[in-house]
Amino acid sequence: MDFNELAVLRWLHIICMVYWLGGEWGVFQTSYNVINRKLPLDERRRHMETAYRIDILARTGIILLLPLGLHMGHLWNLQPLGGAWLTGMWVLTALWLGLCWGAFIKRETDTGVRLTKVDESVRFVLIPLLFLVSIASLMGHGPLVADPGTRWYAAKMLVYAWTLIIGLKLRFIMREWTAMFRLLAQGPNADVEAKLDKSIRFGRNIAYVYWVSIATVAYFGAVKPF
Question: Does the reported pTM lie above 0.70?
């Protein structure tokens, strides 16, 4: 049986998308118990730990979707960079994943907070770049091929960049959890409880926009509507 590179990449892309969407739903549901003041603090911390363990798979899926999409884009002749560039892209992806998992492993420490901030700084560079590339391509300036019938690829990148912005805000919220639970461990604190409640409720509201955006990314990739 011949190895079908594109089919394998597509399969991995679907798995990453499933973990991304499913993981975000899991974190969303777990957050209800994180802010439940009727529960003991230790119980709430266990729910927060569960949320982090679910979220790391979603974060892994988010990171892997980009190189998988770019690799498939090259095989489809929709983006021109291949060969050594693809190899370098996967090396950088491995480093980014290592950073993400390092922040997860050290999440309860100051080192974990610092690694998380470095991880976030990667997105501050990546998001504007993806917006620039996708918008320029949709306007006919390249580098992505965006002719009739293939514009879905650049549009998908554009919406993916938008989801990274929402995801970044949700990461800020989860980082706040760690800081606020450290304060709550020192004793009851009504102000911190109020901030935690407000933070998570805001996160839930933008999560609805997040799910619609993720579904749009999936739709463009599966249906290729234009």
Answer: yes
